[in-house]
Amino acid sequence: MSKIFPNKLPKVVLDNPRRKAEVKVFNALKNAEIFSTQKVYYSASWLNTVNERDAQTDGECDFIITDSDMGIIYIEVKGGIITKDKNNIWYSNGKEIKNPIEQAKKSKHIITNEFIKRWNKKYPLKRNPALFRGHFVILPNSSCQLKEDLGLFGNIKQFGFKEDLDKIEKLISNFFYYVPQGEDHLSFDKLGIDGQELFHEMLTKPINFAPSLREQIKDNNFDIGQLTDEQEKLLSQSVGNWKRLWVEGPAGSGKTSIALKKFTKEAKEINKVAFICRGKNLQIKLSAAIKDIDDSLHHQIYTFDSFLLQIANDNFKDNEIKFINTSLSNEGYSQKIRDYILNIAFDISNKIEKYDLIIIDESQDFEDSWWLLIDELISKESIVWIFGDSNQNIWKTNRPEIKGISESFNLSSILRNTQQIAKQSIVFYDGQGYGINIKGPYASDVKIQKSESLIESLEIELNKLISIQSIDKQSITILADKSIHNEIMEISNERFKITNKINESKDVFLSSIVNFKGLESDCVLILLDDLSKLSDDDLYIGISRAKSHLALLIKNNDYEELLNILN
């Protein structure tokens, strides 16, 4: 197959009936066994920047073929049955069209002049090469019936027809060997590799008008904030007055933000309140966030374990509290202490003051016995809203055992990640995300980088983000297995100080995936040290933590496997 650019036609071209003839020629050229020295370019647009006296400022050449040995040919394609009358008017199926030979010739002159200008700029000490430059026409719906010459306007050898498509290699070769009348004495220079690369750059130069990542983050956060407000408004209008509600949605659907808003709104009117989540880091972040809104409420943000300790301190006997404190000093918090508190709390639940409001986030992590206790700590009038991830493929979640809660209210839109990040996380979602809408802002693609040294690659990535793209350090989170945290901390320096303490908000934050559950960061760098250690659960959580920028750094030997997983 030939080297053709683009190597695949976009749908908008394939579906355009006016492009059918070009598509025929494209497919013939793509499948042709042309010389390895040749490159084919389809639909090369040009801008006249050289000849100010020429009235035509822009145009398009259907095909350009460069050959590092032979030169360049320019091809115009015309579909339909082509004719020309005695007045030199050209027609396709009876409709007037432009003169195809003149179109190809115009493209030849404009693009060649641009090439010369760029050659002289790039290679000021090199002689401008005298190249073979030919212009030709292919008519894929017409046949050649003429054996004589075509008059003064052209030569039959400048045309290709329907019957030539099956042997288009021969046609292209004939075009390159075509010598116009009176020019057989001329000799030409080779285009060469330098010349061919210059043409390639002219015709395929990538363009990226995206704003800087710093600006994208700023814009994305504004858009995400608006989308979350709209989601919260929809929820409030639908079920805002319900005392009992179970809200489910995928990662990135705004559950935590909505939960926090519900908590701050309702807590103003009542006395005994609690916001309960699972992870310590999430509790610290939410407590800091709510302190800026209402300083009186930030002490009411708990992990389930700190919630149990609060119940014990408020309601247990002195000797029971002493046992708990002694155990904490000697052993730290453990399942043993949790069970001890749960058992006593169940026994005295009728004596514990009921909560007027309980908001629960990350409910998919809660155990059955926890729900039983919470149910004992609320009254018929208590407001209980529960938020959890709906991904049955990961969590296998069941309805919380709370009186008054039946079916869940589903948030079906991912809006707190960019579309590119959401598409990667949805791979791990139940049914590949069927029924889930991706509404987040559009941004740059997810970066997947294979590396021999993850630490070196991380250092390079941090330098790019902080020194080149001016990303605030606190906007960056590194997620990695705890076994390599010490190595990561060793690259911490004045340019990018790294911390594993989430309350030190001015530095790059380092965490394991599981400890960052429920949280989010503008930029997330995930180090995949050993892919075999990671479950779908880990990858789903890690990927969905990123709002605007996600980079997956992976060892060379795991790279292909990761691509297979993500696709």
Which SSEs are present, and which pair or pack?
Layout: E1 3-5, H1 11-14, H2 20-30, E2 38-47, E3 58-67, E4 71-77, E5 82-84, E6 90-92, E7 95-97, H3 100-122, E8 133-139, E9 159-161, H4 168-177, H5 192-204, H6 213-239, E10 244-249, H7 255-267, E11 273-277, H8 280-293, E12 301-303, H9 304-315, H10 318-331, H11 335-347, E13 355-360, H12 368-376, E14 378-389, E15 409-410, E16 413-414, H13 419-425, E17 437-438, E18 447-451, H14 454-468, E19 476-479, H15 485-489, E20 498-499, E21 508-511, E22 521-528, H16 536-543, E23 546-555, H17 559-566
Parallel strand pairs: 1-2, 4-8, 8-9, 10-14, 10-15, 11-12, 11-13, 13-14, 16-17, 18-23, 19-21, 19-22, 20-21, 22-23
Antiparallel strand pairs: 2-3, 3-4, 5-6, 6-7
Helix pairs in contact: 9-11, 13-16
Describe the structure.
The structure is a single chain. The chain is built from 17 helices and 23 strands. The protein has a six-stranded mixed β-sheet, sandwiched between helices. A six-stranded parallel β-sheet has the order 12-11-13-14-10-15. It has helices spanning 11-14, 20-30, 100-122, 168-177, 192-204, 213-239, 255-267, 280-293, 304-315, 318-331, 335-347, 368-376, 419-425, 454-468, 485-489, 536-543, 559-566, and strands at residues 3-5, 38-47, 58-67, 71-77, 82-84, 90-92, 95-97, 133-139, 159-161, 244-249, 273-277, 301-303, 355-360, 378-389, 409-410, 413-414, 437-438, 447-451, 476-479, 498-499, 508-511, 521-528, 546-555. The two termini are 26 Å apart.
